Amino acid sequence: MGGRSLLSLTVALSVLAGAGFVAAQTAPVAPVAPTLTPGPVAPSPLPPADQPQPAEEAPPVVVPVPGPVATPAVQASEVSPAAPPKAQVVEKPAESTIKRARYDVAILQALDKVTAETVRFEAAVGQPVRYKTLVFTVKACEQAAADEPQEDAIAYMTVDSQPRAAPGKPTPPARQAFKGWMYASSPGLNPLQHPVYDAWLITCRAAAPVVAAGSR
User: CB within 8 A of 58, min separation 6: which ones?
Assistant: First the structure.
């Protein structure tokens, strides 16, 4: 009985294959992965009731500005005059113990700034000497003493600017251009300031020193 059923099934399949029918095999279907559904989110834990909460920032405090305070007037009887300052004693520079030698002749040199002409001349003490429109009058001429730090010649003089009188006209008035000491070693220390001429001391000399008054 079982052999006949198997034989009948084989014959049926052969007939179907001859008739053009092909049994199609169904491809296995891949299993679909199940979709994961997110679970419920756990709420944040609340702080315990006994934990202190952070304090809120306090608003700024407005401090009122105090008004000006009126000071009481000071009575004249409450103010005592201040003591006068102590008198300052100005020390005099140390003077040379040796008297300077005085001479009666000064050697001067003059320059004409326009023509570049230079002239060296002598001027006796107390006697005016003219150079063009300038008149030199030497009042004293000294040499530095031996105990002074620098050897120098010093002359005190006046220089007047006075043009020569034109024929038939009066002599124009003199105008003082210089008065003071000139130093041979430092001509620029106290120079003659004139727009046309310049002059400076060279030295002092004489046949013999003039004895200064009071040195006897």
Answer: none
